[in-house]
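Journal club prep, shared notes

We agreed each person brings one worked example of a sequence with its structure written out as tokens. Mine is DegT/DnrJ/EryC1/StrS family aminotransferase. I'm keeping it raw so we can talk through how to read the token line rather than staring at a rendered picture. Sequence first:
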Amino acid sequence: MIAFSRPALGDPELRAVAEAFDSGTVGYGPRSRDFEGMFARHLGVPPEHVVFLNSATSGTFLALELLGLTEGDEVVIPSLSFVSGPNATRARGARPVFCEVDPHSLNPSVRDVERVLTPRTKAVLVLHYGGCPGDVAGLAELCARRGIALVEDAACSVASSAYGRAAGTFGDMGVWSFDQMKIMVTGDGGMLHVRDPRLARRARRLAYHGLARPDDGFTPPPWRSWEFEQREIGRRLVGNDLTAAIGAVQLRRLPGLVARRAELGRRYDDALAGAAGIRRPPPLPGGHVSSHYLYWVQVDRRIRDEVARRLHAAGVETSFRYGPLHTVPAYGPVRSLPASERAAAETLCLPLHPGLSDDDARTVAHLLRETVRALRPRAA
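Then the structure, token by token:
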């Protein structure tokens, strides 16, 4: 079976974990802090504004807590994004409001977001689909002008940028994911960036039970290390030195991992050029750099599921990221977003990971072309 996704882990990561074991420190410690510093340099932001967490979902929940959302507030979220956003919104008693996306790029435009803003909107939580930043600069300008917080779900965008600026740093906050399906993998893990220095200090405090920290002015003498000061109610959300050790290796390998994904994307582009009934991803806008997290195609909605079934039977895993959230009753009244529904019915994501060989990519493209060719009369 040609896997849809597979982490790129090897001996360097194993050695890093062994060194963490030998150090005697496996919880949040020096390796976690070093990883935060490395990632901050990667983003081009001060290290004190970055917190290593146990997941990007924890980062999303924490970001919305930092914004002080309460019942009656609204958060605008593109419908084709992950459940962590609306879950975090509902956990605060606020209401997720889903906006449209472009049916080809699967990113929202400024107009898509602006259409659903109301006086109750407190934040926009935007996903960069497949690692493509979309009009994040325009969204940042819109939010600043309207006095609304922008939170970037950069889970797919660990190496993405727009106009020389890292995705995840345009907004007030950004979160990244390092789970086993992402580009950089730590098993589970995530990073949170907070632009405001005061909120960044609070994020670090809330991520460790709400206890006062040295940057809060609290440092007990070493012979009374058991002393603590409870500033507010928090949870334990921090990462640990085992996963940070893996993350540091993965971050050093990141340019090569992304380059291989980009090469596979070009091979898919070439192999599928001119294929009847198959639409490839749109080209990136000028000044944009993608992490190449996903490669998606679009086919007639009447055959999309059968295409996926036949490819699976032929030994190729495919998927679709992400299901339309506006159709989930748990998040509120179901409404119609035609562009999102169209994209959700037509889109199929192909295998894309550094372990995919050139032969595998050729096989996937060939099987896709032949399957769509065989099924097109049915759609017609």
